[in-house]
Amino acid sequence: MTKSSPSVAEKRVVIGRAGAPHGTEGELRILPLTDFPDRFQDMKEVYVGEEILHIETVTIRNEKPLILLRFHEYPTREQAAKLTGKFLSVERADAVPLEEGQYYTFDIVGLEVFDVSETSLGYVTEVLQTGSNDVYVVAKRGEAGQILVPALKKVVKEINLPKGRMTVELPEEM
């Protein structure tokens, strides 16, 4: 299973996008781009674009979900409006830890995929979230065609992030 969270820079993970200002006190609506929106509650600082900002207040409302943040460096509505559309990110080391066997999408994309006989099938170029299980899109660089690999334990035999590889046993009908 993967958790979606696109990467801004190699060492940062996007967790949200700044929306329009809310109210008159410099709060911003935040669109969470994380599977863990509650993480905002305990945060003290966050990258907004390339700037580190210090969080003064956090309000999490369960509708939509709606997250409101106020930053020390942008105390007025007019100043906060300058952040609209920018991505919020954290250091990769600050990503929420996952349970064993779970991976972030950004860790899966780019892995080289091998079958059980050690033949390279290509690289994961995309992760499709279908609802029942994720599907890894695998393609060889510079070649047309793709292989769709279901993210199931009976198909994906090993994911080795340090080595940048995945081993799969494809069903006969593929």
Description:
- The protein is mainly beta.
- It is elongated and about 60 Å long.
- The protein has 2 domains: 2-94, Elongation Factor Tu (Ef-tu), domain 3; 109-168, SH3 type barrels (Roll), CATH 2.30.30.240.
- The chain is built from 2 helices and 14 strands, in the order ββββββαββαββββββ.
- The model is unreliable at 1-9 (pLDDT under 50).
- The protein has a 6-stranded antiparallel beta barrel. A 6-stranded mixed beta sheet has the order 12-11-10-9-14-13, with no helix packed on it.
Topology:
Layout lengths: L1 E2 L8 E11 L4 E6 L12 E4 L2 E11 L4 E6 L5 H5 L5 E5 L11 E2 H4 L3 E4 L4 E10 L4 E6 L7 E4 L5 E5 L4 E4 L6
Parallel strand pairs: 1-8, 9-14
Antiparallel strand pairs: 2-3, 2-7, 3-6, 4-5, 4-7, 5-6, 9-10, 10-11, 11-12, 13-14
